[in-house]
Amino acid sequence: MNVFERIIRREIPAKVVYEDDDCLAFEDIHPAAPVHVLVIPKKPIASVDAIEPEDEALVGRLFSAIRKVAAQLGLGNGYRVVTNCGPDAGQEVMHLHFHLLGGRTFSWPPG
Ligand code: 5GP
Known about the structure:
binds guanosine-5'-monophosphate; five-stranded antiparallel β-sheet; about 110 residues; 5 strands
């Protein structure tokens, strides 16, 4: 079982900032910005590559969660949403997650 599944089960502590029936959002343990939250589905989906057609509504709800968390954390001036998929992108945890980053400006393109 990966670390995010253990966080969902409350076997590992995390600073949860939002939760609903389908989604959980918690602070990243190694923040890359003043606000760095991971928004994940409770359903175990490994990555973007593993999203099935039946998950499309769930993915929409994840983005609604992202929007709610961004508003809740005062990111009215903007924020970045990132998902890493697979080795070339540096995905470390094989459970779909969206990084919500804010509280500073970001350069483009990313590294
Ligand atoms: P990835 O590289 O897979 O897109 O990002 C995984 C993220 O999960 C990293 O930013 C890392 O800091 C975070 N992370 C890994 N283990 C834990 C943990 O146990 N707790 C929390 N809150 N974040 C974690």
